[in-house]
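Render Regulatory protein GntR HTH in 3D.
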Amino acid sequence: MEFRDNKAIYLQIAEYVCEHILLQKWNTDQKLPSVRELAVELEVNPNTVMRTYELLQSKNIISNKRGIGFFVAEDALAHVKNYRKTQFVDDELPIFFRNLYLLNIDFDELQTRYIAFIKETFNP
C-alpha cells in the first residue's frame, strides 16, 4: 500500500479495511489480521494500526473479541457505506464539483464516462 501525504496514515488504513469489506474480501464475522500482522504487511507502526482499529470499532465497523482479535461486525457493510459516504460528501465532493465547474464538464459527459468506468472496472 502506498500512502499519500495529504491524509493521516491511520485514516488511509481505515479506507483500506473499509474497501476490503465493501469488496467482500472480508465478510461478516471474519477475523481481521492482528494489529501486528497488518502493521508488518503495511510497513507501519502497530500503534497506527491500533488507532485505525479503534476508529473502526467506534464506527461499529469492526468488533473486538477479547483475547481472540478483531472481527468484521455484523452490520459492517451498512456502517462502512454510511461512514465512507459521509466522508466523500463532506471532503471529496466539493472538490469534485469545483473541478467540474472549472473544467466545464457537463453531467452528460460525466455520465458517459461513469458508465464506461463501471463497465471496464467491475464488468470486464
